[in-house]
Amino acid sequence: MSRRSKKCCLDATDWLPGEVIYWLNVPSFPPVWSRLSKNNGANVLRCTPESKCGVYDIEIPKELWSLWGYLHPTNPVFHPKPCDKLSWACNILACCAAKLYTLAQWTPRLLDTIVISGDRYYRDSLRKFQGETYKFTLNDLCDACLLENLRFKVHTEMVLFGALYERDTSSIMNLSKALINFFSQHKMGLLHCRHLRALVIGRDNCNGCVGGDYFMFDCQSKDYPLFREGDCRPYLLRCKTLQMLLYCIVMALEVRCKRVQFALHKVDIRYEGPVPDEDDDEIKKLQRIIARSKEKPVKAGISRICNICRSVQCPKK
Fold first, then answer.
1. pLDDT tens for each residue of 17-68
2. What angle do CA 168, 169, 173 make, to 5 degrees?
3. Is 297 within the bounds of a domain?
4. Cα 135 from Cα 137, distance rounded (Å)
5. Gene3D superfamilies annotated for this entry (predicted)?
6. Which of 45, 72, 131, 135 yields a CA-CA distance of 20 to 30 A from 62?
């Protein structure tokens, strides 16, 4: 095995310092990837060529990058009354996308596709659910889903649990230890905290190589500290190290008390191939919803859907 491959193997199972609540109180708060900050972590003005790496925004050079979509699960084009459980379906679709695409292939369009397909997946699962909506859980999502016209079989299972900010000497597993254990056996999964709060975590599917960058997908964050009041967008963070991923998770969850329980679920994905396009695809469905709401319809293409959302503008100098 080459030295580079050996380093990748050790990276996920090496010792990792435990998370600390102090990270939320340091002067750099809000998080470095917050859209409220005019500059990135290297003090480079956002929305300039120097702050970009392809479609990604550079947050910390050679350490952290971010990718932003436009459609959010709480947008009224999906449901008049937003439901956090819809984000669970979007998280499963994000895992499907990670199974099929490397991080280098992700785009803002893919993030919007995940949200649109997640809405359909959630509604299909809800129709088959025999019970009250408030009793709907992650395990009640269907075992088959579509990302656009690509079909996947999914299976979720809780594999680890613990509590945030526990000491390394505690008998209860903290998030640091949980991540080390999780990535020693699994490629991607869901992190659940505070009942409904959930994130997707994983490692890049870099064409079967031993190691790759870590990532975190979040489609629940809204308002402060990442956005202005009323703003929300799905995003993906690409982290070079497991330490950086741990830091990003803590900042995204923003849990300010100790011993809050969390659970890690593995997500097994099997890609089954494309299915015939439906005559009434999701874009047309959204167009009809907008038309019924007496809003201006989207003309064509998923990239134009951002016209119905309030996108975050670059801060003025």
1. 899 998 888 765 689 999 999 999 999 999 999 999 999 999 999 999 999 9
2. 55
3. no
4. 6
5. 3.90.70.120
6. 72
CB neighbour list of residue 41: distance below 8 Å, 6 or more residues apart: 32, 59, 60, 61, 64
Distance of CA 60 to the CA centre of its chain: 19
> pLDDT at residue 173 above 50?
yes
Give the predicted TM-score (pTM) of the model: 0.82
pLDDT digits (tens, 9 = 90+) for 109-126: 999 999 999 999 998 998
Number of other CB atoms surrounding residue 307 within 10 Å: 14
Other Cβ atoms within 10 Å of 222 Cβ, number: 17
Close Cβ partners of 287 (under 8 Å, ≥ 6 residues apart) = 297, 298
The domain of 180 spans 22-273
**How far, in Å, CA of 99 to CA of 77, rounded?**
28
Picking from 176, 203, 202, 191, the residue whose alpha carbon sits closest to that of residue 252 is: 191
- What does the angle CA 18 – CA 22 – CA 28 come to, to the nearest 5 degrees? 115
Residue 305 identity (one-letter amino acid): I
The reply to whether 118 falls in a domain is: yes
As a whole number of angstroms, the distance between CA 146 and CA 117 comes to: 7
pLDDT at 69: 93
Amino acid at 83: C
Residue 106 has which token pair? 């992700």
Domains held by the chain: number: 1
Q: Is residue 298 part of a domain?
A: no
Q: Tell me, what DSSP letter sits at residue 19?
A: P
Say how far apart CA 260 and CA 72 lie, in whole Å. Answer: 26
**Residue 290 within a domain:** no
Classify 1 as helix, strand or coil. Answer: coil
Q: What average pLDDT score do residues 75-99 get? A: 82
- For residue 138, how far is the Cα from the chain centroid? 16
